[in-house]
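hiii so um. not sure if this is the right channel but i have a protein structure encoded as tokens and i wanna go backwards to a sequence. like what aa goes where. can anyone help
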């Protein structure tokens, strides 16, 4: 009985430790003359084989260096479920290889990201149909500083009623944070008159000294960054 009581006490701690905050992000580039076949095969595959932890959200990359790619977001899930995923079985793999793979080019990328609730202003799964992603690469030794900078930016985003989801790359290339702006009101949010400029909004929250510190810190902390726009394609993902 004593052992059972201890187990019941520790069970909530175990459950809490299993954060459902992991996504895998894959990008595929279909052949120019195979896009209709690719989309048909991808949708059929996703809707037949990808549910639960392995459900797919599919987006098209509209701008930036990866324009023309299709991004597949799988999850969210825990690291434990990612570890146990495997190849989802022979039927799944055979279907992909027979129907989807022949429509693709050799260019592809794979990565894992973890959702940072503490740095975000929106829940992980409160998606929007149109988004912009800024990939922020920070210099070695500046991990604490980049997080502090993002926390300060979060206060500005909250004051501006912006839906921002922040993810951290996990063992997937250069250390980076991806800042995802979710346009819940559509692309009109990008209009210059929709909101005041970021510097003005930042100064209202943190003052001129705060802005000067932010600019100076950005020059020191950030190695490089780039941005892109993506649109969700509901008909191509899991149902």
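sure thing!! here u go:
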């Amino acid at each position: 009985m004593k052992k059972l009581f201890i187990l019941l006490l520790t069970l909530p701690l175990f459950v809490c430790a299993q954060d459902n905050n992991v996504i895998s992000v894959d990008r595929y580039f279909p052949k120019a003359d195979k896009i209709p076949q690719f989309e048909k095969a991808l949708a059929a595959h996703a809707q037949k084989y990808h549910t639960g932890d392995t459900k797919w959200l599919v987006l098209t990359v509209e701008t930036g260096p990866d324009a023309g790619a299709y991004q597949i977001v799988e999850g969210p899930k825990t690291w434990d479920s990612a570890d146990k995923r495997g190849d989802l079985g022979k039927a799944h793999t055979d279907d992909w290889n027979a129907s989807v793979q022949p429509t693709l080019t050799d260019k592809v990328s794979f990565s894992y990201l973890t959702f940072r609730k503490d740095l975000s202003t929106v829940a992980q799964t409160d998606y929007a149909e149109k988004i912009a992603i800024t990939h922020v690469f920070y210099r070695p030794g500046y991990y604490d500083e980049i997080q502090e900078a993002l926390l300060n930016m979060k206060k500005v985003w909250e004051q501006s009623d912006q839906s921002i989801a922040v993810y951290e790359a996990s063992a997937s290339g250069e250390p980076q944070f991806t800042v995802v702006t979710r346009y819940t009101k559509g692309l009109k949010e990008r209009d210059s008159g929709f909101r005041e400029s970021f510097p003005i909004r930042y100064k209202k929250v943190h003052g001129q000294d705060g802005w000067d510190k932010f600019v100076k810190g950005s020059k020191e902390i950030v190695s490089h960054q780039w941005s892109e726009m993506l649109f969700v394609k509901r008909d191509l993902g899991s149902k």
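oh and The radius of gyration is 20 Å.
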